[in-house]
Amino acid sequence: MSTSFQNIKGTFDILPDAYTDGGTRIASSAEWHAVEETIRDVMHRHNLEEIRTPIFEPTELVARGIGQMTDIVSKEMFAFERSGTNYVLRPEITAPVMRSFLQHHLEQRGGVQKLFYIGPCFRAEQPQKGRYRQFHQFGVEVIGADDARADAETIAIMMSVYRAFGVDNTTLRINTLGMPEARAKFVNALREYLEPYEDDLSETSRRRLAKNPLRILDTKLDYEQEILADAPVLTEFVEDESREHYVQVKTYLDELDIDYDEDPLLVRGLDYYTRTAFELESPDLGAQSALAGGGRYDLLAEEIGSKQPVPSIGFAAGMERLFLAIEAAGNDLPEPEGADLFFASLGEEAEHWVFQTVHRLRGEGLHVAHDLKGRSLKSQMKEANRQNATYAIIIGGNELEAGAAQIKHMASGEQVEVPFDRIVDYVRDETANVEE
What we know:
- The protein is of the alpha+beta class and 436 residues long.
- The protein has 15 helices and 18 strands.
- A hairpin with a 2-residue loop joins β5 (79-82) and β6.
- It catalyses: tRNA(His) + L-histidine + ATP = L-histidyl-tRNA(His) + AMP + diphosphate + H(+).
- GO terms for molecular function: ATP binding; histidine-tRNA ligase activity.
């Protein structure tokens, strides 16, 4: 079977089985689910609560939140208009989360709001390995905390996620961006320094020089890095309060035994960041080494309409990059759960008995599968194995007459006869013995 329609460039389908697309392994839906559940487990252990926001938001929210001069807003948004209102498919989730926090007055819940999310985002950028036009992010937003401990804890949560998957070969880079006034002075100094080199810069950097010189600091071009070697350094312009906050963040990271590299050239691509900024990289991923990044965004709430600032910090990470990092580290993905029971039926009478029994057992909380194609016993056992079933339960005419099923433990191959009314007890007793 085939169709002339294909998934849109820069997107991919998540299927029941893993497959390869353009040389990149696309994990199965069960593997995605297992990874997401591991992330949720880490988040819950750190006392975070999940938040979900719509995948499209008003254009103005995203533009004001992220910044008009950023690459995302200027050329990477999927935008559309409906009934006179402009919308975009969300390119990131921090601004929508802050919008939701303000709209629903979550500050009235009391204390610091520690939130996490997992969901799709959209950017019209050039697709490449591990980077797509529809991609999936997970992240954390700690809203209402000005203390440097919140910065260190947010970084610790980020590190814990990757450690949970055995991704240990990473580098954490940190910096302080200061507040907007200090950063504006630095931008002016940086522009003045770079203007004599304008003809030597790449086309992308020349465009950034006019619009947002900070982004030039992200360059991967060797000759531009040489130009930047003697450029002004942002930390020289940072005000004393931000500098002291940065010292405290490093102190708390030291207390948690989290290694880090201080990088005075580290900036973030979104305008809402203030003070602390950080990125996590893995050299195992080659040139495209970024795994996650984040920072403090104390003024974002005011940018989108709040009457007062709301101190906050967070990070965002790409799910696709996480899968690549797990693979590069040589680690296995979390094992998807298979069916508890697979019923193989032989003959029409057995099919009716199995059909009723399967639905009854599902009502008792068991994960149960069965054949719907009337295949041979050999084919049904192959299907039980494909579904990673723990037990295969064989029902035919002889079993119906005896009132007892043949139960095969798929891992050991051991097969026993068990009365129909003891099937559930047998399976649960055996499972309990294994867990002990």
